[in-house]
C-alpha cells in the first residue's frame, strides 16, 4: 500500500496539535502567555534604557493581567463544573428516588396487604370446610349406593329363588308329586 507524501505529514501535524492542546489545556494560550512573560522579564532585566525598561514592564503587567484573568476564568469554570456535578448527582438521586417511589406506589401498603391476607385466609378456611362437607357427603352417598347395590343383589337372589320355586311347582313332575302325595 503506497502512502501519499502529505499523509505522513498530516499524522504528525495531528499529533502536534493534539500535544499542544494537551499542554495548553482549554486552548486559551496560557502556556504561550507564560513564555511571553518570561521572555519579557528577561528583556526587562537586560534592557539598557529606562524607556525600554518601562515599556517591557508595561508589557509584562499586561501579560500578567491576562494570565490572572485567564486563571480567574479557569477557577470560575472549575467551580461551576463542581456545582454542576453536585447538581447532576442530586438530580440522579431524585430520578432514582422517583423511580423507586413509582414501583412502591404500584403495590398496596402493609395494612391493606395484611387485610387481604386475612380475607384470603378466611376464604381458604371456608373453602376447606366446604371441601370437607362435600367429601363427607360423597362418602355417605358411596355407603348408601353400596347398601342399595347390596339390597338389589339380595332382591335379585330372592326373585331368582322364587322363580325356581314357582317353576318347580308348575312342572309336570311337581304336579304328579303333588297329586300322588295328596
Describe this entry's structure for a reader.
With 182 residues, the protein is an all-alpha fold. It has five helices and no strands. It is rod-shaped, with a radius of gyration of 57 Å. The relative contact order is 0.03. Mean pLDDT is 83; it is low at 1-9.
Condensed summary:
With 182 residues, the chain is mainly alpha-helical. Helix content is 90%, strand content 0%.
User: How would you describe the shape?
Assistant: rod-shaped
First CA to last CA: what distance?
142 Å
Number of helices: 5
**Which stretches of 5+ consecutive residues score pLDDT under 50?**
1-9
- Average pLDDT, rounded to a whole number, is 83
Sequence-ordered SSE layout with sheet pairings:
Blueprint: H1 5-24, H2 30-46, H3 50-105, H4 110-170, H5 172-181
What attributes characterize this protein structure?
single chain, 182 residues, mainly alpha, 5 helices, rod-shaped
